[in-house]
Specification:
two-stranded antiparallel ribbon; 11 helices; single chain; membrane; olfactory receptor activity; Rhopdopsin 7-helix transmembrane proteins; Olfactory receptor
């Protein structure tokens, strides 16, 4: 049985077979990547530079923007490089690093989205206790817990996956190194350990999802009882962007991992992977900037300040 050292590189699934389509995909994903960098970069700059946005909600939004940048930067640059240079190869170490960072950023982002649901729940349902429950120290601790749990989860999955011997070739049926696709190349029963880890992770994901749903049930009940229409509008304006981001994140992930095997195909899997790994990081800044008036005002001030500096 060949051991793990027999695989020195993996071959990723290309987006297209013809050179013209490869270059078209490169240009398309370059535009998406630059839009994600610009959108998330503007949010980071606005929250960091504007003292009016130094609130728990925007602190978690800053964390979300960082994770979005990390998530899309883990997968898309390599895929674009492969399309540009007409290659499929990724080194063994590069594949392991891609799995590590993608699982880290993806898991941490889901934890941050869960914490943001808790933040909105406390702000709307327990406003008198908001300062004590979601103070600066509590925010830092919750963010640290989200990043730490994501990193620990990523290390466990990566170490377990790449300790397997591979004897089923080196072609990964995805445009980036994805754990389920790599496990298919294993020739050892030890892959059951990774399946157990995946089941544990899915249980955690489901628990967070239930927490988010229950939080929003309480939030909407509290909002609908508000006597002031202005108060209801303000509450919805802070909650709906987060709910939209969660819906986009969860729905694309569910389609990717819970679709029936009978409808699975390399082309469909490729499209679904793009939906959950590329679309949310690029769309999140747009979703938040459309509904968050404080963020829109901060971005306008940032743009105005930059224009004024350039004129002087």
């Amino acid at each position: 049985m060949p051991n793990i050292s027999s695989v020195s590189e993996f071959l990723l699934l290309p987006f297209a077979d013809t050179r013209e389509l490869q270059l078209l995909h490169f240009a398309l994903f370059l535009g998406i990547y630059l839009a994600a960098l610009l959108g998330n970069g503007l949010i980071l700059s606005a929250v960091a530079c504007d003292h009016r946005l130094h609130t728990p909600m925007h602190f978690f939004l800053l964390n979300l923007a960082l994770l979005d940048l990390g998530c899309i930067s883990t997968t898309l640059p390599k895929a674009m490089a492969n399309a540009l240079w007409d290659t499929r190869a990724i080194s063994y170490q590069g594949c392991a690093a891609q799995v590590l960072f993608f699982v880290f950023f993806f898991g941490s982002e889901y934890s941050i989205l869960t914490i943001m649901a808790y933040d909105r729940y406390v702000a709307i349902c327990k406003p008198l206790h908001y300062g004590s429950l979601v103070g600066s120290r509590a925010c830092a601790q919750m963010a640290a817990a989200a990043w730490s749990s994501g990193f620990l989860n990523a290390v466990l999955h990566t170490a377990n996956t790449f300790s397997l011997p591979f004897c089923q070739g080196n072609s990964v049926d995805q445009f980036f190194c994805q754990i389920p696709q790599i496990i298919k190349l294993s020739c050892s029963d030890a892959y059951l350990q990774e399946v157990e880890l995946l089941v544990f992770s899915l249980s955690f994901v489901f628990g967070c999802f239930i927490f988010i749903v229950l939080s929003y049930v309480q939030i909407f009940r509290a909002v609908l009882r508000m006597p002031s229409e202005q108060g209801r509008h303000k509450a919805f304006s802070t909650c709906l962007p987060h709910l939209a981001v969660v819906s986009l994140f969860v729905s694309t992930g569910m389609v990717a991992y819970l679709k029936p095997p009978s409808i699975s195909s390399p082309s469909l899997d490729l499209v679904v992977a793009v939906l959950y790994s590329v679309v949310p990081p690029a769309m999140n800044p747009l979703i938040y900037s459309m509904k968050n008036q404080e963020l829109k005002d901060a971005l306008k001030r940032l743009m105005t300040a930059d224009v004024s500096k350039s004129k002087t």
